[in-house]
């Protein structure tokens, strides 16, 4: 591909995370050699069947430059989501940045639900039970793995 634009003007350190089941945050840093008036715009496509959409809620720095995006009602699809960040400047052409991301890989799971601990006085010990965390896409409960950390007090 031919990348038009000033070298070093594309964004850097692009990263996204999904939390609370359906919220997503993406952030980036301005290109090292991007002019001071550069403004960035994020577009994304969750699956091939969806339309490409621009970010609705940008995260801005103190100078009003877009440095991230907040998303709501994100659904995790089986295929990769496509992200594109391009930029504009009055002084020069800005290189774009794009990436495909498998959304399930960037999800921070909520804690397991209804954790209960029942301890008996005899040497049987304690019974710990819980239910799987909330998630928008995992249908098989056996997909989850858990780790219990017990500290004696």
UniProtKB/TrEMBL annotation:
A GO-annotated cellular component: external side of plasma membrane
InterPro entries for the chain: FN3_sf (IPR036116), Ig-like_fold (IPR013783), Short_hematopoietin_rcpt_2_CS (IPR003532), TypeI_recpt_CBD (IPR015321)
Domain of life: Eukaryota
Domain Type I cytokine receptor cytokine-binding: 13-106
Subcellular location: Membrane
Pfam families: IL6Ra-bind
Span of the signal peptide: none
Gene3D superfamilies assigned: Immunoglobulins (2.60.40.10)
GO MF assignments: cytokine receptor activity
This protein's UniProt keywords: Glycoprotein, Membrane, Receptor, Signal, Transmembrane, Transmembrane helix
Protein name as it appears in the record: CSF2R factor
Organism encoding this protein: Steatornis caripensis (Oilbird)
């Amino acid at each position: 591909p031919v990348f038009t634009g000033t070298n070093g003007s594309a964004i850097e350190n692009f990263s996204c995370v999904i939390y609370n089941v359906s919220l997503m945050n993406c952030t980036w840093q301005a290109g090292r050699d991007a002019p001071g008036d550069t403004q960035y715009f994020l577009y994304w496509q969750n699956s091939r069947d969806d339309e490409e959409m621009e970010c609705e809620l940008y995260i801005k720095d103190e100078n009003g430059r877009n440095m991230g995006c907040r998303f709501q009602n994100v659904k995790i699809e089986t295929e990769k989501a496509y992200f594109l960040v391009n930029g504009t400047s009055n002084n020069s052409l800005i290189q774009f940045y794009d990436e495909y991301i498998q959304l399930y890989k960037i999800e921070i799971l909520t804690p397991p639900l209804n954790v209960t601990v029942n301890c008996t006085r005899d040497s049987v010990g304690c019974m710990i039970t819980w239910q799987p965390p909330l998630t928008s896409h995992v249908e098989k409960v056996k997909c989850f793995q858990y780790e219990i950390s017990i500290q004696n007090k």
